[in-house]
Amino acid sequence: MIRKYVVFVFCLLGLMPAYAQQSGDSAMYAFVNHLIGEMTLDEKIGQLNLLTSDMAITGPTMRKAYMDDIKAGRCGGIFNAFGPNYVRRLQQLAVDSSRLHIPLLFGFDVIHGHKTIFPIPLAMACSWDTAAIAHAARLAATEAAADGLNWVFSPMVDIARDPRWGRVAEGAGEDPYLGSLIARAFVKGYQGNSLDDSLSVMACVKHYALYGAVEAGREYNVVDMSRRRMFEDYLPPYRAAVEAGVGSVMSAFNEINGIPATANSWLLTDLLRRQWHFKGFVVTDYDAIPELINHGIAADTTAASKLAFQAGAEMDMQGLAYVHTLKTLVQEGQISEDAIDQAVRDVLIAKYKLGLFQDPFNRINEARAEREIMSPDKLTFVREMARKSIVLLKNDRQLLPLKKTGTIAVIGPLANDPRDMIGCWSGAGDWHKAVSILQGIREAVGNRAKVLYALGANIIDDTAMLRQLNAFGADIHPSPLSPQQLIREAVATARKADVVILCLGESAGMSGEAASRADIHIPEPQRDLLKAVYATGKPIVLVLSNGRPLVLTWEHAHIPAILETWFLGTEAGHAIADVLFGDYNPSGKITMSFPYAIGQIPVYYNHKNTGRPGNPEVKWTSRYLDIPNDPLYPFGYGLSYTHFSYSPLHLDKKVLMPGDVLHVQVQVTNDGQYDGTETVQLYIRDLVADVTQPVKQLKAFQQVFLKKGESKTVTFRLTADDLRIYDKQMHYRYEPGPFEVFVGGNSRDVQAASFELK
Ligand code: NOJ
Predict the structure, then answer these.
(1) Rounded CA gap, 590 and 593, in Å?
(2) What angle do CA 611, 616, 620 make, to 5 degrees?
């Protein structure tokens, strides 16, 4: 059947002889150009139309007639369809029934795994382990491909400094340097060495651009930002993904300085194509073209299509704008057919590179799906990734790790809650297969300790929010008991125990898309529970499950041990128990600052100094009367069960010449009681430059594993290139002058030394 298909198409296009003689890119272009030559205008426009199936819904749907569209060649790709059977049926429709037999792309939001769910991306970022993240993406690709997919809408690389925005869960946090390395790791993992490897899928970097900077953290809100800030802080990860060879780019919902990203030709064409030399195709976000009418820059769908297309948006995701309007725009001469051909070429080349013209069914294989989906190797690695992602925020008097003895009370609405463990955007993940914290703890202690359980509180009691969460599939059922009864029961349980593990946080749907929160404390019923259990005087370990940094000021002041576990995915409970009982020594470091108070937001480590740097002792300085300037937990922060000490910093020179290398050395010693991993971070500050610079910027980091008592020397290499800045003319270059270099285990607790760039 497959061979028949290929031979048929090639003969049909008269390409067999030419194709046979050419190789590589020229064969690809010859094939694609010939195919375009055979296409009607309608068929071309069809390739620019991406439709959702009705299998999974990730936005407001508009119609179900997508099967007819496939047969008529009015559709270039389908998203939200997976499973070998279903995908085969749809692909078969395209290949057998459409006139030119052009295979479909199959896209899906594989954000942190497909069916085997990894920790949310913000959590994985806290591992600072880019090789592990690349491997996680590779496993996700393998599983997604085995389920018939060839395209994933990931990585999401939006830099975010505002934890009110629910989508911080999907990204890597606030830092452009780390964010760029992680963007690259995801792309490499998904795409592998070659897109036509049937274990690879095409990545789609999103949301281009600046979506993480929506005003006030409110979803889909506007972005107004200077070019300087874009280039310095927000654009690097998208660019890193492009440089890593990402196959597609998704335009963002938001406007940027008055021009929505989806109709922004500076963004989609000047920057992306001309400056960054992006060679793949641009797809819009869901329904983003018709939404240009709401933005107020288009009077109708035709005008919206014209603006988006001319800006460089090539494929219309579920907006049905291009299929309905592009033809007329071409016939009226408002858009050239050559421009349509170029967009179609970009889409067909992606299909070609994915090997779909050679074999449209190359990823569809039931036996492989059976073998790959939730295979033991994936589950093992998910557990490993989950353990790496956990951040120990506080551990007074070494309360953790716990012993597997005595009586342990496990209390809280997130304790016995497998559903929430897989977090937001958990693709096709099945929460029934996820391990709850309670289950993980019970398995870990076996019959060596007695484990008691109480619910203690509902995640939220706010009925309006509950209704919204349930409308989007949360399925939260508040307890029939009153809040007072729940707390009473929990307090009684706590009193019987030697130690209490309180599992609090957010429900999965409280972060992710369309999940901004203005109040980012632990929800009220849970705080009431926490305070009541605290009043018992029992030692408490607070285990947090949540999709964003929360304000934990009260918790930090009162609770001896706090473990940030985010949403860790399928193996959450096992990984958490591994850390609670010391079978794994935590090493995660947060990649977004945890605010001291909501009023500080945005709060981030790489801020500017101002003319009057904050000083609590001096009135006329940049500060608050009522709270400190610093976050509660700074970027890069995270504890270990062991302790690491740092020798004084050693620089091999005081003056760095361009072309030369500055070696920055520090000896790190594990002088605690456990073996452990430390992430040694290097920051710089450009003290005097033409343009003001941040007080710190991450430039490098290294992870070292040290046995207890062991020391290692960590050496960083800095060159003038690492010190480049955007000057007044926005040229990226280095300037001579004084610098400071800082090294430490987080962005706050560092040692400093100075040098000069000549
Ligand atoms: C909207 C989201 O913004 C985007 O991230 C996602 O990929 C698409 N919907 C498709 O589900």
Answers:
(1) 7
(2) 45
Query: Which ligand 1 atom is nearest residue 204's CA?
Result: 7
Is residue 109 in contact with ligand 1, taking CB distance under 6 Å?
yes
Contact by Cβ (8 Å): 420, 150: no
Start-to-end CA distance of the chain, whole Å, equals: 67
User: Residue 8's pLDDT is what?
Assistant: 47
Distance 58 CA to ligand 1 centre (A): 7
Q: What one-character-per-residue DSSP string does 95-162 give?
A: IIISTT-PPPEEEE--SS-SSSPPPPHHHHHTTT-HHHHHHHHHHHHHHHHHBT--EE---B------
Q: Which residues of the chain have pLDDT under 70?
A: 1-22, 56-64
Q: How far apart are CA 325 and CA 305, in angstroms?
A: 7
Does residue 286 have its Cβ closer than 6 Å to ligand 1?
A: yes
- CB atoms under 10 Å from CB of 609, counted, come to 14
Report the b/e string of 256-270 with b at 16+ CB within 10 A.
Answer: beebbbbbbbebbbe
The CA 383 to ligand 1 mean position distance, Å, reads: 27
C-alpha R_g of the chain: 27
Are 184 and 240 spatial neighbours (Cβ–Cβ below 8 Å)?
Answer: yes
Given the CA of residue 318, which atom of ligand 1 is nearest to it? Answer: 10
pLDDT at position 474 is 84
Backbone φ and ψ of 122, nearest 5° = -60, -35
pLDDT at 24: 84
Alpha-carbon distance of 495 to 534, in angstroms, equals 11
The predicted pLDDT at position 562 comes to: 99
Active site residue 285: yes
Question: Exposed/middle/buried for 522, CB within 10 Å: 0-12, 13-18, 19+?
Answer: buried
| CATH number for the segment(s) 644-757 | 2.60.40.10
Q: What is the pLDDT of residue 58?
A: 66
The pLDDT of residue 17 is: 46
Q: Could you give the CA distance from residue 639 to residue 162 in angstroms, rounded to a whole number?
A: 23
DSSP-based three-state secondary structure for 206 = strand
Reported as a single tens digit per residue, the pLDDT across 576-614 is 999 999 999 999 999 999 999 999 999 999 999 999 999
Classify domain 379-590 by CATH architecture.
Answer: 3-Layer(aba) Sandwich (3.40)
Distances (CA, A) of 73 to 7, 46, 148, 216: 20, 6, 20, 43
- Interval 152-205: pLDDT, tens: 999 999 999 999 999 999 999 999 999 999 999 999 999 999 999 999 999 999
pLDDT tens digit string along 401-421?
999 999 999 999 999 999 999
Select from 372, 371, 387 the least CA-distant residue to 118. Answer: 387
List the residue whose alpha carbon is closest to atom 7 of ligand 1. Answer: 153
Binning the chain into helix, strand and coil, the percentages to the nearest 5 are 35, 20, 45
Amino acid at 307: L
DSSP structure string for 687-698: SS-SS--BS-EE
Sorted by where each begins, the domain ranges of the chain are: 1-105+336-374, 379-590, 644-757
Q: Is 153 in the pocket of ligand 1 (CB under 6 A)?
A: yes
List strands edge to edge, sheet with 676-686. Answer: 655-656, 750-757, 737-744, 676-686, 697-706
> What is the C-alpha to C-alpha distance for residues 593 and 632, in angstroms, rounded to an integer?
8
Q: How far apart are CA 544 and CA 566, in angstroms?
A: 7
Q: Distance between alpha carbon 370 and the CA centroid of its chain, in Å?
A: 28
Spatial CB neighbours of 275, under 8 Å, sequence gap ≥ 6: none
287 C-alpha vs ligand 1 centroid, how far in Å? 10
Residue to mutate (ligand 1; options 285, 289, 425, 472; most atoms within 8 A of CB): 285
